[in-house]
Amino acid sequence: MSNVRNKDSKMEIKLRKELWRAGYRYRKNVSGYFGKPDILFKKYKTVVFVDSCFWHGCEKHFKLPTSKVKFWRNKIERNIERDKGVTRYYKRNGWKIIRVWEHELKNNSQKVVERTIKLISS
Predict the structure, then answer these.
(1) What's the CATH code, domain 10-121?
(2) pTM above 0.90, yes or no
């Protein structure tokens, strides 16, 4: 567990590099904003969260560990509920929120970058 990164994961860095290369400037892991977004575009009132399939309970890839089942079920359910609350908060306050799944970046990072840029600038 000590090797699990809560910021600057390979997936986040990959997305940030592509956005920077495309000319989009951002702040990363901003603690002063609700939910501590992975990427924040204040100019565009947009936040981006890169969600890990395990920690955020991806419907396609999440597999509940076989030990400490109750603990892990509660942990992941709390994470999912917190994600929903963060999404509601930003939508209610007029911000765009983009959630990117880890598997999306692994499978087709260019498509994710294009979709993110489209959503930021729309």
Answers:
(1) 3.40.960.10
(2) no
